[in-house]
Write a structure and sequence with these properties.
Layout (H helix, E strand, L loop, with lengths): L5 H15 L4 H8 L3 H8 L7 H11 L15 E3 L6 E3 L6 E3 L8 E10 L5 E3 L7 E8 L2 E5 L4 E3 L4 E5 L4 E5 L4 E10 L1
Helix pairs in contact: 2-3, 2-4
Length: 185
């Protein structure tokens, strides 16, 4: 399923959250400290909002920042280094790319994993509904559900169901990744 363009995704999320909060365009613009015309442009998918603008909108709506990037999450998600929809800052050399927002009612554990070439680490299925998020930091690895493994290089991100057999295999010495295990809380 192709992901919508960032401006379309943000526009839909702002409209959705504004409707949930029962706020008029004027009321949200005032609460966020924005011109009504600016907010109107963002809701129509025009403009290039900064991270500060989006934080102001999220704060005024009383929602987490990640809600402004919510779309249905496919079962498998692979983000290669340099891909994804980043949002820059107006004031600093800073760019944040949301890889995976945490849906309500979930629990996440974060792990730093070090792998060495040799026998692959095979993992039995975790409890139903468990999902893993892997971000490769160094080296190269083959990771994922048996039959849907992907080769990851530094900066690549892969989300996959972990309630099926899955594997981690280092393809280079010094392979390191950040793994987040998500389960129903």
């Amino acid at each position: 399923m192709p992901q919508p363009a960032p401006n379309e995704m943000i526009a839909a999320a702002i409209r959705r959250e504004r409707a949930k909060a029962s706020l008029s365009l004027s009321a949200l613009a005032e609460a966020a400290g924005l011109a009504k015309s600016t907010l109107s442009q963002l809701e129509s998918g025009k403009g290039n909002p900064s991270i500060e603008t989006l934080w102001a909108i999220a704060t005024a709506l009383g929602v987490p920042f990640s809600f402004l990037f919510e779309t249905p999450t496919p079962e498998l998600t692979l983000v290669r280094a340099g891909e994804g929809h980043g949002v820059g800052s107006e004031h600093a050399a800073y760019r944040a790319t949301l890889l995976a927002p945490c849906p309500p009612g979930l629990r996440r554990d974060i792990y730093r994993v070090e792998l060495a070439p040799g026998e692959p680490r095979r993992s039995d299925p975790h409890p139903p509904g468990t999902v893993e998020h892997c971000l490769l930091m160094a080296g190269e690895a083959r990771i994922g559900p048996v039959g849907a493994e992907e080769i990851l290089r530094p900066g690549d991100y892969y989300r996959y169901p972990a309630d099926v057999s899955h594997v981690y295999e280092a393809l280079q010495p010094g392979t390191q990744l950040v793994m987040v295990m998500e389960s129903r809380g």
